[in-house]
Write a structure and sequence with these properties.
Layout: E1 8-17, H1 23-29, H2 39-42, E2 46-51, H3 75-83, E3 87-89, H4 99-112, E4 116-118, H5 124-128, E5 131-135, E6 138-146, H6 167-179, E7 182-190, H7 200-211, E8 216-220, E9 228-231, E10 234-237, E11 242-245, H8 251-254, E12 259-268, E13 271-281, H9 284-287, E14 292-293, E15 309-313
Parallel strand pairs: 1-2, 1-11, 2-3, 3-4, 6-7, 7-8, 8-10
Antiparallel strand pairs: 1-12, 5-6, 9-10, 12-13, 13-14, 13-15
């Protein structure tokens, strides 16, 4: 994408896995094939996603009792670079599906493809390090963070893993970002429960992000879009759902729409000006592992919402409200208005 001199855009994609049930199609059509309908919406100055599962040829689960365990072929890393990804968060509950060796493979394959991994690493210091995105208007720092999903995930001084999501680690991430010269601090967080509404635990951590002065929080994990809110001045997108995800999904079983959100943040000299949201249909029983934008005026892939495209105006620093968000899942009626 040719950068506009008066703005800098970062697009965020949700949970992403080029493997599992999509493997046969990927082998036949190539690993960029699932992105066919999304490419125009991924065109940004910088593109970030959540890599849900290791990129490695190792195929033996690290945790034998784990119900779902994934890996993606190394060709996935090259494909992600080809469609435009600049960085991938590894802070999620599948990053250790193939153990420390799978995590090391993932980091190596992403780096070889020119993609910056963050949110997990061979040591706690590397796992906690913010992703720093330079823009013409200042540095955007992104903290990849997640729940401590089980024993063996947490990194320490000489052990690979992720950083547990606590009030203390949230504050430490903000401090590290500002010490690195960041103008904006964003939490890209993997939390919540699969296919259910926002939990009290998410709300408590959202308050911690706001107290630590984060400019924005973008969530993944529940596999479907959850409501948006403004918590003490900080916009919180509790979940943007899946992007390209290779498992079948359980949307119908839980009675939730098979949709995800692509989110674009727009930065200018004045600050974080707005957040653009586009809805994509991604129930693989319908889209067959090739997500696509929902039709603005109806169609086979629209399903639950009409269009599901909206803009959240942020202004120079403080949010100005969500009153024009009419097609997003605000059914919990937990939206604040500034």
């Amino acid at each position: 994408m040719q950068q506009q001199t008066d703005q800098f855009t970062i697009t965020w994609a949700g949970d992403l896995l080029l493997g599992d049930g999509a493997r046969g199609r990927l082998e036949r059509h190539g690993h960029t094939w699932p992105f066919t309908h999304l490419l125009p919406h991924l065109a940004a100055d910088y593109l970030i996603g959540n890599q849900e599962g290791p990129i490695t040829q190792l195929d033996t689960p690290h945790f034998p009792d784990q119900r779902w365990s994934y890996n993606a072929d190394p060709a996935a890393a090259t494909a992600l670079a080809e469609v435009g990804f600049n960085a991938m968060s590894l802070a999620n509950n599948h990053t250790f599906d193939r153990g420390p060796e799978g995590l090391a493979d993932t980091i190596a394959h992403l780096r070889s493809a020119g993609i910056t991994p963050f949110g997990a690493g061979p040591t706690a210091a590397e796992a906690a390090a913010p992703l720093l995105v330079p823009t013409p208007f200042g540095v955007v720092a992104v903290l990849g963070q997640s729940y401590a999903f089980r024993s063996g995930y947490s990194a320490d001084a000489d052990t690979p893993g992720t950083i547990p999501l606590t009030r203390a680690t949230i504050a430490a991430g903000a401090d590290a970002a500002r010490a690195a010269g960041a103008r904006w601090v964003i939490g890209f967080v993997h939390w919540g429960e699969n296919y259910v509404p926002v939990t009290d635990r998410q709300r408590r951590r959202a308050a911690d992000f706001a107290a630590a002065g984060y400019d924005l929080v973008i969530g993944t994990g529940p596999h479907y879009p959850q409501p948006m809110d403004i918590v003490a001045g900080t916009p919180v997108l509790y979940s943007i759902g899946n992007s390209v995800f290779g498992s079948g999904g359980r949307f119908a079983s839980f009675g939730v729409p098979g949709h995800g959100l692509l989110v674009t943040t727009v930065f200018t000299a004045h600050g974080l000006e707005r957040i653009d949201v586009t809805c994509i249909a991604n129930d693989n029983k319908i889209v067959r592992y090739r997500p696509r934008p929902t039709a603005p005026e109806g169609g086979a892939y629209e399903m639950a919402w009409t269009g599901c495209r909206a803009t959240i105006p942020i202004g120079r620093r403080e949010p100005v409200g969500l009153t024009n968000i009419t097609h997003l899942p605000l059914k919990e009626n937990h939206v604040s208005h500034a």
